[in-house]
Design a protein that fits this description.
Layout: E1 8-9, E2 17-27, E3 35-46, E4 51-55, H1 64-75, E5 83-88, H2 93-98, H3 122-134, E6 140-143, E7 151-153, E8 156-159, H4 165-178, E9 182-185, H5 195-201, E10 205-210, H6 219-235, E11 253-256, E12 263-265, E13 270-274, E14 281-282, E15 287-292, E16 302-305, E17 310-316, E18 320-321, E19 326-333
Helix pairs in contact: 1-6, 4-6
The structure holds zinc ion (ZN).
Amino acid sequence: MPHASPITTDVDFARDGKQFGHLAVPQSTNSAGWAKCLVPITVIRNGDGPTALLFGGNHGDEFEGPVTLLNLARRLRPEQIRGRVIMVPMLNRPAIAAGTRLSPIDGVNMNRAFPGHPGDTITGMIAHYVSSNLLPLADLVIDIHSGGSSMHMLPSVNMHRLENQPQMERMLEAAHAWRAPYIFLYRDVAGAGLLPSHAEQMGKVTLGTEMGSKAQFGVETLGITSRGVDNVLHWAEILVEPPPTGGSGAASQVVEAGDESDYLMAPTSGIFEPLQELGDQIVRGQVIGRLHDIERPQQPPEEIRTESAGILFARRSVPLTAQGECLAVITRVVDPVSTKS
Ligand SMILES: [Zn+2]
């Protein structure tokens, strides 16, 4: 018997038309013993058909998803679709308001809280509502991320490499429909409990993204995000007419960081000096950056050498670095059809 969520909503998922509403999450605070944290949700439905479930603001320092989905929620009219689009533009609503990656209320990372539990603190409680009430409704799941405050990234649509080959092929088809510069196959090197992992395990066609970073936030990355969502909704036969900008641009390059060594973590703390930029071709053993010791200036900086070769796909965007933090990600081009590396 699944545990019921204490979260309620004022939207009716079965009703045709457009509804702006909220998920009301119980909260007890110092200023109000009885209160609700209101997480905005928009449902647009036009008869029977597939359901797309779109998330932004899983991390509170990534604003590409909120801007794209707030615009889409206002712009999209029921008569333009067949089926249903459910949008949660600011999933970790308290984190978005604070501009922080993790929730300021319980310090939890929403993208490590899945599947969640109704008895969890606020972040896990929201994750549980998504797992038990929203994901079962969906055929297509999109979770929009970027590098946020700490990483510069090449703009990509992403996914794990799945055992289920038909599901993987369908997800790659959806990813190609996005028309982002890259399709990025990644592995989890910093914990489990991700929203996309959970949706993938439920068999959903699931796309994540890494659309640049807080510092790269702008016209280009927002354009790739918003055109891509339209393109994929059309691919899913939810958006009836092709979007005006759909299908334009070069085909995506499929890249993979499948080995633990593709993710370079800082061996010591210090000031990170990058020596290579995003998109650069890296050879094995190349020094891609240096860490300067702020306490021992006479000490030569620690050289960061790669153990793998490929494209510099991501690098740390903040100079001050603590031991163990990710400095760079190296990817290799893989066959877009078979996705064999
Ligand atoms: Zn994120």
